[in-house]
Design brief:
This protein is of the alpha/beta class. It has helices spanning 19-26, 40-76, 84-88, 110-123, 150-160, 170-181, 350-356, 395-406, 421-428, 537-549, and strands spanning 2-5, 78-81, 93-100, 130-136, 140-147, 188-195, 215-222, 231-237, 241-243, 249-257, 263-272, 275-284, 289-296, 303-309, 320-328, 331-337, 365-370, 384-388, 410-414, 438-445, 456-459, 484-490, 495-500, 505-512, 515-520, 577-580, 584-587. It folds into 4 domains: 2-31 and 40-79; 86-222, Rossmann fold, CATH 3.40.50.410; 231-328, Immunoglobulin-like; 331-549, Rossmann fold. The protein has 10 helices and 27 strands. Strands 17-16-18-19-25-24-23-21 form an 8-stranded mixed beta sheet, sandwiched between helices. Strands 5-4-3-6-7 form a 5-stranded mixed beta sheet, with helices on both faces. A 5-stranded mixed beta sheet has the order 9-15-14-11-12, with no helix packed on it. A hairpin with a 3-residue loop joins strand 4 and strand 5.
């Protein structure tokens, strides 16, 4: 055990203890010798007083000297170091505790043991030691910076240490600990890692990763589990829609076995709208996956919420996974033909109606074609109205079309040589609110000159309409040639989903009431383009109809925990927490 100082530079202040001595010596009174007659009795009395005065001065001098010396020692912060190594490094430890709160720490009582170990590390610190606290999952959260207030760190640990649903990444936490320790100029620097040491957490380390000199990393508690048994629902495949007239909807749950032994007859339950709809038993090999398949018939038209659930194990976080499913009857589409031909293959809707009724179609679509707009309330029988090269509509028809879209119907408008821009602006976009997403400017190009053409160069793949085309070999819009098309001026709030190679829009979307409008600036026949003869045309038409009918938005329906959710239709102030069933909450960021 040796005496050490946390701030030895202040020992220089010991030199200040000599200041009272110097002042005393400089100001010391010197007696003058004066000859008088016999003053023997006065002299004896004076000598006694002088001795007492000198004693008082010496005591006062000693007190002043000790006071300055003690002050210098106090600033130097002396202590007795038990560990010689600590004494050499300045006499104190600077400790950063990394507490793993990733979801794997929820196995059995691992997280409780981890918190207890963190408490023990803090309790073992000497009063002069400093400590910091970091929570770690896939990101590192510095809860407390270096501090010698150990009780505050314990309070933060008790108040904020909670399991997350996030994976593990040790790189961020160790780098954060290294940054925290850079502010410690004196003393030993130690990082204590309290974790189950999942292998995946070390995968992001690279050879160039280095800690600052003098920083040591210790595994304070190794919470690895020998031969863990854990099952998880790692994925669910459910159709976007389930049609009542078609074959049963198939829901497939992927079950993973993360243990080292095979498991037989594992029960997998399917719950929809709070009701158990089925149970399957699966056999899963060690460190392998298996699928549980459920076939269901629906008779209603609504959005269902459901989940797949496994028996409880020692890591319950991953035993359940949620999904949404929309049930629907056949989609009814009305096509208004603005340029019927003498033969059916010359009709403006020839390619359109065949695209909507292919063999082995996934979505059941009932198509009605006419040159007459639906009369009276007949329009309510349809889900989507498609106008193809229609020159004009009567005012009553336009009003019924507006009401149809506003109440949730879908409208697709394809142009052609019968369309006059001024007429469309007058009948569709006059009044308080425009029905179409743009105003038509003029037709450009020459349909007879196939040497000059434009192609589609920009596709908004993040939009749900084009999500099925995002992967390679799932449809190439760039192969179609457009010889003639309309230049348009998009209105405020319009969404340009397709663009030609000159930057002008090919497909524009607009929200109108509860419904949506899509306008295509060329034709759906081969008079102005060869698009209908391309393989991508059929799925494109289908996805437009499905998008308008299913009311799909750019918002995702299914999220993992901590995924950012973009919500429309809410008008809450930032920071508002909105409770939503069953037990979720949404915090509005901005």
């Amino acid at each position: 055990m040796g005496l050490s100082f946390l701030s030895p530079l202040f020992l220089i202040g010991l030199a200040g203890a000599s200041i009272p001595i110097i002042i005393h010596l400089l100001n010391r009174e010197r007696a003058r010798r004066v000859l008088f007659s016999s003053l023997r009795f006065i002299k004896n009395a004076h000598q006694a007083n002088v001795k007492r005065h000198k004693l008082k001065q010496l005591i006062l001098l000693l007190m002043r000297t000790l006071m300055l010396a003690i002050l210098a020692l106090a600033f130097a912060r002396p202590f007795f170091a038990q560990d010689p190594q600590i004494a050499e490094k300045g006499g104190r430890r600077n400790v950063v505790i990394i507490l793993d709160n990733s979801y794997s720490m929820g196995y059995s009582d691992n997280f409780s043991r981890a918190k207890s170990e963190a408490m023990n590390v803090i309790s073992d610190l000497n009063p002069q030691d400093t400590a910091a606290l970091i929570f770690n999952s896939d990101t590192a959260l510095v809860v407390k910076e270096l501090s010698s207030e150990h009780d505050e760190i314990k309070m933060a640990l008790n108040a904020h240490a909670k399991l997350t649903y996030n994976p593990t990444n040790y790189v961020n936490a160790i780098q954060a600990a290294d940054e925290v320790l850079k502010f410690a100029n004196i003393g030993e620097k130690v990082v204590y890692l309290i974790s189950d040491l999942q292998k995946v957490g070390f995968q992001n380390f690279i050879e160039t990763d280095r800690l600052s000199p003098g920083v040591d990393v210790n595994v304070s508690a190794d919470l690895r589990v020998e031969n863990p048994v854990n099952l998880a629902v790692t994925g669910i495949s459910a159709p976007e829609i389930a049609l009542n007239e078609k074959k049963p909807a198939r829901i497939v749950a992927r079950i993973a076995n993360f243990s080292g032994k095979s498991l037989a007859d594992v029960p997998v339950k399917l719950i929809i709208d709070g009701v158990q709809m089925g149970e399957q038993k699966v056999d899963i090999l060690a460190n392998d996956t298996a699928d549980a398949i459920f076939d269901l018939n629906f008779t209603d038209e609504k959005t269902h919420t459901g989940y797949v659930e496994l028996p409880g194990d020692k890591l319950p976080i991953d035993d359940k996974r949620y999904f949404t499913l929309q049930t629907l009857k056949s989609i009814k589409v009305f096509c208004l033909d603005g340029e019927p031909g003498r033969r059916s293959d010359e009709d403006e809707t020839f390619f359109l109606t065949r695209a909507l009724n292919p063999k082995n179609q996934v979505v059941s679509i009932q198509v009605s074609k006419s040159t007459r707009f639906p009369a009276g309330d007949e329009i309510k029988d349809y889900d989507v109205i498609i106008l193809t090269n229609v020159s004009a509509l009567g005012s009553d028809e336009v009003q019924r079309l507006r009401n149809f879209v506003k109440s949730g119907g879908g409208l697709i408008v394809a142009l052609g040589d019968n369309v006059v821009p001024a007429t469309y602006t007058k009948i569709f976009n006059s009044g308080a609110e425009a029905l179409l997403p743009c105003n038509l400017v003029e037709a450009v190009g020459d349909e007879s000159n196939h040497e000059q053409f434009n192609v589609i160069a920009v596709v908004k793949y993040e939009h749900p309409l084009f999500a099925p085309f995002k992967n390679p070999n799932h449809g190439d819009f760039g192969t179609a040639r457009f010889y003639k098309r309309f230049h348009v001026a998009a209105l405020a709030g319009a969404n340009e989903l397709l663009k030609y190679d000159d930057g002008t829009p090919a497909l524009i979307e607009k929200q109108y009431g509860r419904g949506r409008v899509l306008l295509f600036t060329s034709t759906f026949d081969t008079e102005w383009t060869d698009f209908p003869q391309r393989g991508v045309f059929l799925p494109f038409i289908h996805e437009m109809v499905k998008y308008l009918t299913l009311k799909t938005s750019e918002e995702k329906k299914d999220y993992l925990v901590n995924d950012p959710a973009q919500l429309s239709g809410f008008d809450f102030a930032p920071g508002t927490t909105v409770a939503r069933k069953p037990k979720a909450s949404v915090s509005v960021a901005n």
